[in-house]
Write a structure and sequence with these properties.
mainly alpha, elongated, about 100 residues, two-stranded antiparallel ribbon
């Protein structure tokens, strides 16, 4: 495997780790909607800033609100899982060919 192949393997692992962390941030945002934490807490504000713009865009494209339940975070989690499977596998296969 060449140096570029090693770089692709490293990049695939970093990307997979970043997507996993973002998945858990989305999960935390969903939990926050149930327990109503202090909105002035810096951690809560950071989670809101990371997740809400993306779920807002999903809500503009698809009808995600059913009564009082918003399933935009669920769609976003499915997108994250799809990206993890697709992109990391493609990068790893490309790294093996290089």
């Amino acid at each position: 495997m060449s140096g570029f192949g090693v770089f692709l393997v490293w990049f695939a692992k970093v990307l997979n780790g970043a997507l996993t962390i973002y998945f858990w941030v989305i999960f935390a945002r969903a939990l926050f909607s149930w327990i109503r934490p202090n909105p002035y807490n810096p951690i809560v504000r950071t989670v809101y800033k990371l997740v809400d713009p993306v779920t807002y865009r999903i809500s503009r494209i698809l009808p995600t609100r059913f009564g009082m339940v918003d399933i935009a975070p669920f769609f976003l989690m499915l997108i994250i899982i799809f990206l993890q499977e697709l992109i990391t596998r493609l990068l790893l296969q490309l790294a093996l060919r290089v």
